[in-house]
# Entry
Amino acid sequence: KRTMNEQTISKMISMKLSGMVEGYQHQESSPEFKKMSFEERFQLLIDHEYDRRKSNTLKRLIKSANFQDSQACIEDIEYHEDRKLEKMRILELSSCNYVRQTNNIIIKGPTGAGKSYIAQAFGISACRQHHTVKYVRLPELLDELMVEQYRNDDSYRKSIKKISKVDLLILDEWLLIDISPEQAALVLEIVEMRYKLKSTIFCSQIDPQGWPQKLGNGTVAEAIMDRIVHNSIQLLIDGEISMRERHGIRN
# Structure
């Protein structure tokens, strides 16, 4: 009997059915399962495998998103009165309809208001619903792409392709500083490729009315604005006290 069990387990492992192996071993070591029918026991094994795979998929999606805070979640968002956050609106957005409809979200508010946390909470929600997500600070992304443009390989095109394909791109520190004409051209390429195909969350300290100036005005700035603002849901996060102060974070 032991040999047969070992052979069965070996075959399940080779088929990557680790959840079923765990469930099978648990059933074999617990006498109460002997009273159950084959169908009942088999159903439990399938459930165990299904749950394991869902859990592993979620872990992979969260890891590949490269969040700064992988613990951010909708359930932990704080609705202090001065933040002016509507709970029903946040919950509706966490359903990810905007991702399925390829709309953008603009999260705006002062430093320390908690923009990054809420954006990443939306990102985790998207991962839970099996969407691919990438979180990145805009200055960091532009620096990487500028370097890759001058390499004699296809690293730039590969990076741009990855950015264009991800279901939800979260751009933190959006236009925190003025950007060069070359960087504005990169931004245009990114938003152009994602326009009406994929969703992006922009975290910004300044209102979209001030974006053209940061983008150097002109036709490139106009084209970027046209591909972002009309297709976006705007979310203002206010607060007389910053979230850093509320949580005793000094920097």
